[in-house]
Fold each of these.
Amino acid sequence: MVSDQITHGRSRCRNCGFEAPGGDDEWRRIEVPKLGRMTQCPNCESTDIITSR
């Protein structure tokens, strides 16, 4: 049986190690001029985030 549920990988802040599912509401979203929308760590405010699948 195939599941219709979409599974997101874990995202991790490379600065402080904070982890949460990719796309989760725990992550902050910020608008950066000339770069667009970026994900920001809620703990240390870093935008150096990696996502595993």
Note: The chain has no helices and five strands.
Amino acid sequence: MTYQCKLMDKECDGCGDCHEEAEPCPNCGSQEYEVQYFLKNEWIGCDQCIKRRFP
């Protein structure tokens, strides 16, 4: 089963035109992140500039 395009009357081809532009990270300015990191409801960075470390 295929998805319908949100902008045109055609089958979705995965172009991404229907997605909004990502907000720039407040720490590094990247728009190519997949994860946002928050500390008490304040966005502090993304997966491009913050490293996860487990104790």
Note: Strands lie at 36-39, 42-46.
Amino acid sequence: MDYTFLLSKNDHICFDILSRFTQQADQTLNKEELAQSLSLTTYQLNKYFETMNTDLASVAEETPCYLDEPNKGTWQAFGLNSYLLQKVTLLYLNRAPLFTALEYQFFYNHLYTKKEYVTANYMSSSVFYRSLDSLSDTLTKHNFFQASSLYASKEFTVRLHLFQLYYTLYNGVSEPFEPLNPLIDNMVAAIQSGLPDELNPTQETKLATFLRIWLLRMLDKNTIGNNQQLQIKPTASSQAMMEQLQNLLADQLELTAEEFNYLYSFLIAQGYLGFDKMRELAANIPAVDELTAQFMGEMQDTNVLLTTHLVDDHQLEDSLLSIHFQFTTFYIEPTTFISPDQVQFFAELYPAFDVAVSHSITKLQRREDLHLTQKMAVNLYFSYMFALINAVPAELMRDQVHICVDFSQGNLYTNYVIQSLSAFNHAHIIIDAHLTADTDIYISDFHSKKVSQTQVIWQDPPTPVDWSNLADLILDAKRQKLPSLFPNQDTAQKGSGVDEIQQDSEK
């Protein structure tokens, strides 16, 4: 969910313009084209130019960040990157009346009167009341109250979307609700003591943000309820964790079994407690097994593997369990690995996987209960791809590329190139000890008339350009194999899987 709809009109235009700079390699924009695209006059555009420079100056750190017009009609950004864009977006968010109204509605409306909150935030009463009146309709329009997973509890959905808002926009810049920092640090430490492994920085940040939303919703008397589908089995470890948290919260609230169950379920869904706990809790969600079985069935139906026996089926099973458990419960719409442009690369490098993955996602998109957006579909594409790449060895793939390495200088040179080819092991490469009918590419230091296959001649150690050209040949070999490997698929234009994802998302 894109939460920039909360920004005021003028700040949203500034955000739009700054985002366009970061999408250009040279960070330049044509002023006339920009004015036409945004339906702005030259005067308006110049005013926004001044505003953006003021905003960038306020968030820049050691390196200056600003916009300039080095040539008439051309704007260029200097020192602007994704991190500074996130900082200026957070600046816009915190001065947006709609965001102030949102924080009151979801975190403080049972603790303070509207008048008390307006006074505390130095706001105009009329602006606050207008924002509060329009908040519900605005959030509904942007699907804030629509469940993003199969878990349809209203409070569960609200908390999940609030978490996504704060985690996305604050992550790496600052902590939301900073007065809570000491308490949150102690809560994270208490939870960490009951986990099998040390939390990484990204995991700790995610947990801390989750705890802030969880705590504030409880303090504002918005409880999770006792009708949760996810029900943990209490253990000595979980009980000890609950007692530690209750001691920390004793002055503010009573930690109920239902609320701890909700928190512990989140820890399990994020994989903080291991796959055994996740597998145990997933037994309460039939859709997890259903989606996994559907995906494995697609692998068999599309005949991707030479054999259906996977060497590391346990690893694939664990990966699919994690994907589907999070997808059906605590699904947090990602902000990374969501670009359809990058899918093309994987579709070409792993065409067999692309067929199975794209078909699986297309089926999911046609289910009305999953509410699969394009961002979700693309992220799921990457998740499935990575799960297969990590678990399925090249020897099992039908779209293998066979390479024979044969240098006249002998094994020393030959083995060096073979060892270097390990960098391409993700491309399902099989090294042939001798030239065979299956060989697709022949690498040597001299051309041979006895070889009919594609030949690569390296008379000196290969350069980065040589490796790049070899990668292109590997992709070409894969494309040529597709029609015979998948005769029932439209492989004339690779990347069709991406097109299916995009087209179905637009329906």
Note: Strands lie at 28-30, 66-71, 74-78, 401-405, 429-432, 441-444, 454-457.
Amino acid sequence: MPQDTIIPPSDIPDLSSLRAQTEWAALLRFFVGGGSSDAVTHALFVNAVRLHDAAIQEYGLGRQAILGFHSCAPDQFGISYIAQATTHFESCIWHFERFIKHARALRSLKSAEIELKAIIPRDLSFLNQSVEHQITQLRHTLAHLEGAALRGQLPQGTSVSLMPLEHGLSISNHVILWSDLAQWLCDAHACIKKLAGFKSSPPEEGA
């Protein structure tokens, strides 16, 4: 990958068309008994939808902050916009990592409906081990460096922030490309949209 500049791009993917699904899932639960009939499964299901909605929301806020940076007047530095973007993208990564763990838990839960598990096939991009590793490494590195700073052991010149740079989100030597992150979030949204509309089938008579 080419050497990154410290200026984030003005054209990172726009995911504003990915609508939140938490309210829809809640309405279906209330009116038609949507979701899982198993308590543990439904708790994971609700949290997975909520966490993904949060990841998308934080991504969008981070993107808005970057656009604000690029629309600054010539006599403004726009540093506050970059700080805002950093905070929102850190939250995006944190929520998305937790979402992936919930999705994996739903797939492996014995009490979960087979039909529900089928909505989360193992070949989804965000369930790829290398993808999860990239996201986890980014967050772990952030936590590790922050911990080192709190102990007064941070190496000189080391940043403890997840920086939105030209090609992607970066901290230390870890980078997630903008195009990759957008694709993973889009693939996860397609999955979540189906999950939000899931309704457990009633048990067969005599079963």
Note: The chain has a mean pLDDT of 90.
